[in-house]
């Protein structure tokens, strides 16, 4: 069976003015559908780099990532990445934070917004949406959208 996620020979280095930091080298593993994988290690061992590569935020220097047998570049929109901090925009409503990805992809149509409302209900977040705006950085439109 084709693994859900297949990583082979993955490598990545950061390049800065101070020099090169090899973050990951020759990482290989595969996960079947429904499997749960925890990546554990000390600070700086490359966990966030791995997640950024898997979600397409960084491009692998070496190796390959496959989802359902297809290269990552063909299936990037299937992947979500929950960061350590929420990184919500305080001046936007819950609804407009949740639908920001749709907005960027120009997919904020009735069908997609309907799905957003379903998910807000599922996670009991509808009651919080739309909240009063808390603050508005200079130059940004204010108020719930
Ligand atoms: N933006 C960056 N620029 C330069 N080096 C970085 C950057 N991000 C991470 N690193 C370095 O890459 C290595 C792996 O970091 P990271 O993936 O953040 O580890 P972890 O998430 O496990 O703490 C560390 O040595 C870190 O200092
Ligand atoms: Mg990290």
Give a short synopsis of this structure:
By secondary structure, the chain is an alpha+beta fold.
Distinctive features:
145 residues, alpha+beta, Rossmann fold, 2 domains, 4-stranded antiparallel beta sheet, 4 helices, 4 strands, 23% strand, globular, disordered C terminus, binds adenosine-5'-diphosphate, binds magnesium ion
Describe the structure.
The chain is an alpha+beta fold and 145 residues long. It folds into two domains: 5-78, Rossmann fold; 88-145, no CATH class. The protein has four helices and four strands, in the order ββαββααα. A four-stranded antiparallel beta sheet has the order 2-1-3-4, covered by helices on one side. The longest helix has 13 residues, at 110-122. 10% of the residues are buried. Mean pLDDT is 87; it is low at 139-145.
Q: What structural class do the secondary elements suggest?
A: alpha+beta
Report the total helices: 4
CATH architecture of the largest domain: 3-Layer(aba) Sandwich
Oligomer: single chain
N-C termini distance: 45 Å
Summarize the topology.
Layout: E1 5-16, E2 19-31, H1 47-54, E3 62-67, E4 70-71, H2 94-98, H3 100-104, H4 110-122
Antiparallel strand pairs: 1-2, 1-3, 3-4
The protein binds adenosine-5'-diphosphate and magnesium ion.
């Amino acid at each position: 069976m084709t693994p859900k996620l297949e990583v082979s020979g993955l490598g990545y280095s950061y390049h800065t003015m101070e020099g090169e930091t090899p973050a990951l080298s020759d990482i290989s593993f595969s996960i079947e559908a429904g499997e749960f994988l925890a990546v554990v290690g000390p600070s700086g061992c490359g966990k966030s780099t791995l997640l950024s590569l898997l979600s397409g935020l960084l491009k692998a220097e070496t190796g390959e990532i496959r989802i359902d047998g297809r290269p990552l570049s063909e299936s990037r929109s299937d992947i979500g990445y929950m960061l350590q901090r929420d990184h919500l925009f305080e001046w936007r409503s819950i609804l407009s934070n949740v639908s920001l990805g749709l907005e960027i992809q120009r997919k904020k149509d009735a069908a997609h917004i309907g799905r957003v409302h379903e998910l807000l209900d599922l996670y009991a977040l509808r009651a919080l949406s739309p909240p009063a705006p808390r603050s508005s950085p200079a130059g940004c439109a204010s108020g719930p959208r």
